Structure formats: structure tokens, C-alpha cells
Amino acid sequence: MNGLPTLSNRYRLVEPLGSGAVANIYRADDLTLGRQVAIKLLKYEYTRDPAFQRRFLHEAQALAHLDHPNLVRLYDFGLENDQYYMVMELVEGSDLKSTIARRGHLPPEEAVWIALQLAEGLGLAHRAGLVHCDVKPQNILLRADLQPKLTDFGIARSVLAGGEDDEQPWGTPQYFSPEQARGEALSPASDVYSLGVVLFELVTGHLPFHGKDPRALAMQHVSSPPPAPRSLAPGIPAEVEAVILRMMAKDARERFRNGEQAARFLRGLLQQSTPGAARLAGARAIEPLYENRTAPGIDWLAVGLAFLALIAVGGLVPLTMWVYLLYFASAT
Question: Please, are residues 260 and 127 in contact by the beta-carbon 8 Å criterion?
Fold first, then answer.
């Protein structure tokens, strides 16, 4: 026996997998379905804190409405001895931050492939009206086959709710979007920025901004331009650099609107959608980034509509004159 409890007479804790700020993670046996799962158990010191209870329940509710291969799945939620717990999909692998620390940086095709999958997962969350608010490598589990799983929706916010007050800070300063640093309402484009920072780190092995003071670090996202990724890793294709810098645009309106749109551009950088055969596809996907710099083509639909409008207006002129003359003749 390992001395660990069995929750609800069903989930037998096997071994600890990790520990976060407010919860511990365990490998567990599901005695009913005969499978291994991950248990996220709220720490004892937070069990009687209503704010942390709400946050824990909020995360479970967010995950319950999401089903995507790149988002960790929620199986169950329960309470045991006044301690809340979540039963989740067990992901065999390490977090992405550990991968970066071990490998330094990833080849561009691997990094883009990982970011593409994460963008697709975020796209589903965004369609469901959720903003993750804390996209970072520590919240991304990576399997050996390069399938990432985004976790920790504990501070996710509803797009419809806008910027609601919270006594807890949202997100992590190293991956803050500019609007996050300013304390403004967040949107799906905020997650796109944070994912851009993750992709920057994947291909260069470095964060774009550094600082010991969290507030000063956060404000760099607001006012300081990020270094060009190719200045840190010259082997990065220019097309990949351009996508990263667009994802990290200071103005949210200049980024991809949401995860789904970001995924389309990232997919365009790969010729095939399998990690073993992924290769960069040159400038094919990057062309829309510069579409406002080239001479626009003729919009024949607009021309046709304008021509019809001209005919209509031109026809009204003689008709008006005819009515006026007819009225004048009858009056005299």
C-alpha cells in the first residue's frame, strides 16, 4: 500500500505526478472502468476558501463543455472529505517548458506543428465563448508523438462576461498579452498573443522579454517591440518569423482574431499535417499578411453593382423631369 486514499470508492491514487499553486496532481486507477486517470486534488489549505472553490469548480465547468484532442479531457468531478477533485485524462509525457529546458529549442517544423494543434484547441474554446487567459508551456503537456494538450482552465473567462473583477492576477507576466498587462478585458486574440510567445520560445529557446519585476516585465509586452526571432536563431524561416510577429502584435486588431484563424495560417506553413512529414511550405500561407501592400485586384461584383446603381440614378433624372413638367402643364 502507498498510503494514498481512494476517492469516492472508485479512484485509487497511485503516485503523485506534480504540484501546482492550489492543487496536487496524481496518477490514479479508475476501479470502475479499469483505466488510469489523472486526479487534480485541491490542496487542504484552500478547501475552505470560497474563492478557490469557485475557481476550481469554474475550471471543471469550462472543461466539461470542451472536447478536443488538444485539450485535456475532464471525466468526473467530486468531493471527498471536504476536498474537491477533478478526474482528467492521463497524458503520458512532460510539460512543454521541461521540453524546452531539455532541448533548448525545437526545429521550426516541430514548433509550428505543436503551435498549430494548440491553436486548433484554442479555436474550439473560443467558439465556446471562452478565453484561456494563461497559455504558457507550463500548462501544455506534450506526448512523445508531439501531440500537445492544453491544461489549466482555472482562470478562463467568458468572452460575453468581459473584464470582470478578480482578486487574483490573471495569467503569467512572461506570456501576458498587452491588454492583459493593462488590466483590460480579454478576447480570443489575447490567447493568440500568448501562443505567439510560446511559439517564439519554441523556435528560439528564449523568451522575448526578461525582467525580475513582474510589473516591469508585463509592461514590456505593452511598449517594447519583441526581438526578431531570426536574430536569436538565424535558421528560422522568414515566413515563420512573420507569423510569430503578427501573433505578437501590440494591437489586438492586427493579430489573428482567434485560435481558428491562427491555425489556418500555421497550417499553411506546413505541407502535410503529420509531425513526421511536416515541412515548411514557403510563402504560400504568408501572402495574406501583406495583402494590403499590393495593388488590389478588380472587384467585378462591386463594379457591376455600381454600374446598376448608375443606371438606376440616371433613369430617375428624366423620370423626375417628366413628372415635374406634367404637373406644371396641368397647373396652367
Answer: yes
Q: Give per-residue pLDDT as tens, 96-110.
A: 999 999 999 999 999
Among the listed residues 76, 95, 134, 191, the single catalytic one is 134
Write the pLDDT tens digit of every residue in 182-222: 999 899 999 999 999 999 999 999 999 998 899 999 999 99
134 is catalytic: yes
Given a contact cutoff of 8 angstroms between Cβ atoms, the answer to whether 152 and 88 are in contact is no
Q: Please state the pTM of the whole predicted model.
A: 0.78
d(CA 332, CA 294): 62
Strand order through the sheet with 11-19:
6-7, 11-19, 23-30, 35-42, 83-88, 74-80
Grid cell locating 256: 489573428
Give the SS3 label for residue 12: strand
Burial class (CB in 10 A: 0-12, 13-18, 19+), 301: exposed
Answer yes or no: are the C-beta atoms of 75 and 66 closer than 8 Å: no
Q: What are phi and psi of 237, to 5 degrees?
A: -60, 145
